[in-house]
Amino acid sequence: MRTSRPIIDKITISDQDYARFSEYFYRKTGILFENSKRYFVDKRLVERVEATESHSFLSYFSMLRFSQGDSELQTLINLMTVNETYFFREEYQFKCLVNSMLNELITHKKPHEPIRIWSVPSSSGEEAYSIVIYLLEHWPALQQWDVEVISSDIDTDIIHKAEKGIYSQRSVQNLSDTLLKKYFRKVRDGYQIIDDLREAVQFTRVNLMNEQSVRGYKQFDVVFCRNLLIYFDDVSRRMAADTLYDALNPGGFVCLGHSESMSRISPLFKVRQFADAVVYQKGRDVV
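^ thats the sequence. predicted structure below, dont judge the formating
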């Protein structure tokens, strides 16, 4: 017998419905919803049931699974994913990037080889743009090296926001007035990244749980994957770790969020303790 949650806007999401949807969303994205997220998920499901003029959750769920293309799934992903960040978040890792990681990496690079940095998930772009600003401000060797910054997310709406590069006062609160004047211009809705910096970052859509989606993401030297794995279960974390490992050049580094530890996820990486941060490295003896 099915038990039901209270009706929200006249649409009922039962416990069984919720379980079926959660399992489906997990298979597609690797994101596992805990019970504490129940109201959040129910509310957004009801929004989509009504927006698609479905008669019930079951009719909507059938349409979601069997319709051609994945436009509705992408809409749901955009609604269900949380994007909250700001400039220079966990700044110690940017210090480690310019003080240690890059200087070690270039000792193994040929002059014509690019340095490739991947920010995933991109969220609204603060992390990727922070990397570029930090390189410009604190890494003198940037003049001698071609650095590519690619930033990716599963949420297409947030990618469009990142490309526009418009941020609130809260997002830029950790930036000095000097940096704001140098790299932003004041606009009606806040501050917008200058065009040169917007052109310096390539934003793309990627799903780390989809083999086809990540196939082209290779030969990176540094990956920032911060505060994503906390939304995965153990199986999805290991799959994501394997993907990041395959995406890295030998000797490449991964930076995780402060509450995440690769040592508890995968044995593929070795721990590197630098002066500014602990990061994780792919061995150089990998062919």
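The first helix runs from residue 15 to 29.
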